[in-house]
């Protein structure tokens, strides 16, 4: 395994994660639905899409993001858990989301060609995978040079007391499926993505919306 994709010992392997989230699938929406609904809606507002744009939702889970996508986009959702994906497919069928295609697969190693998508969305997934840095490498490979990568996730705080709590409780959170000690900088190290901006919906929010682009410098003004 290359140094540019360091694996943390704090995360489960992908097969372990798949099995755990198959169990979560039965009650995931009831547990987290109300908590993430507004954040996901706000996150997807950052896409600034054009009609016909293709977007890849890596770690689509039970499909809670799917209803927030404009219907003039082409949406591909991928998840490692068959149980979670079955719940997502149920939403697609019930809501008539004809613009959505769902695929079973590993977000760290997707089958798509380079620059296949106008945008990539990673909602509540980067702290779940075993290699967060590799996930962003894959997202960068898949998105077009002028596209956006939207990340919605909890990241470890810089407030000393909160950071300490997130670190010592991490072993507990890992057992239920995600890391609580993940730094945004850890994910971005060596990837070559630029942070356009990031924000929280309130000062006490634990989750951040991060907007990334592969373009490292702004375009020069038109002549």
From TrEMBL:
One of its GO terms (molecular function) is phosphatidylethanolamine N-methyltransferase activity. InterPro entries: Methyltransf_11 (IPR013216), Methyltransf_Superfamily (IPR050508), SAM-dependent_MTases_sf (IPR029063). It holds the Pfam family Methyltransf_11. Keywords: Methyltransferase, Transferase. SUPFAM superfamilies: S-adenosyl-L-methionine-dependent methyltransferases (SSF53335). The keyword Phosphoprotein does not apply. PANTHER family: METHYLTRANSFERASE, METHYLTRANSFERASE DOMAIN-CONTAINING PROTEIN. Its EC number is 2.1.1.17, 2.1.1.71. This is Phosphatidylethanolamine/phosphatidyl-N-methylethanolamine N-methyltransferase. It comes from Algisphaera agarilytica. Residues 56-151 form the Methyltransferase type domain. It is an enzyme of class 2 (transferase). One of its GO terms (biological process) is methylation. Signal peptide: none annotated.
């Amino acid at each position: 395994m290359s140094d540019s994709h360091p694996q943390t010992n704090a995360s489960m392997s992908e097969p372990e994660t798949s099995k755990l989230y198959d169990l979560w699938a039965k009650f995931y929406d009831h547990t987290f639905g109300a908590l993430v609904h507004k954040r996901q809606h706000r996150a997807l507002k950052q896409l600034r899409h054009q009609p016909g744009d293709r977007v890849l939702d890596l770690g689509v889970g039970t499909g809670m993001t799917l209803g927030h996508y404009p219907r003039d986009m082409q949406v591909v959702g991928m998840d490692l858990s068959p149980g979670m994906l079955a719940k997502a497919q149920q939403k697609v069928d019930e809501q008539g989301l004809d613009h959505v295609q769902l695929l079973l697969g590993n977000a760290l190693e997707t089958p798509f060609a380079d620059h296949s998508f106008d945008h990539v969305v990673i909602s509540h997934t980067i702290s779940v995978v075993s290699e967060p840095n590799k996930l962003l490498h894959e997202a960068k490979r898949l998105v077009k040079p002028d596209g956006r990568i939207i990340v919605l996730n909890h990241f470890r705080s810089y407030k000393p007391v909160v950071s300490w709590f997130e670190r010592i409780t991490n072993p507990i959170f890992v057992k239920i499926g995600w890391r609580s000690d993940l730094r945004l900088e850890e994910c971005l190290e060596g990837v070559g993505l630029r942070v356009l901006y990031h924000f929280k919906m309130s000062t006490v929010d634990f989750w951040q919306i991060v907007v990334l682009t592969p373009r490292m410098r702004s375009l020069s003004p038109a002549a």
